[in-house]
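Researcher: Here's the sequence for the chain we discussed earlier.
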Amino acid sequence: MTISTISAAGTNPAGQSSNIGIQDFLKILTTQLNNQDPLKPMDNQDFVAQIAQFATLEQSRQLNSKLESMLSLQGSTQSVGLLGKKVDVEFNGSVLSGDVTALSLASGQPVMTIKTATGEFRDGIMLAQILNIRV
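Model: Thanks. This is the structure I predict for it:
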């Protein structure tokens, strides 16, 4: 049985673009109105329903964008609390333990430096690599 991957909520599979804006919607709606059958014009309720659906879709898109920004900021804020803590991280296929000594941001994502028990510094540790946090 083959299991295919799925994309995360709010993302587009295969890099498809879904950046349709109000101008694009209005062009589609205008074209639809221009090409409708004069003997069977578009019902006003359908017209209003389409506008309401697009407004809802646009608001959902903006909400998703703001939530992504908020989650990124929250991860950055929480990572500050790791300074000075002992952590176990997955590093090159093995578990590495050490103290978080530095924190920086790379593309909006927190990146840590840890100091191992042998005194070595390991840079480029991401939050997703942390397995355990000790006090």
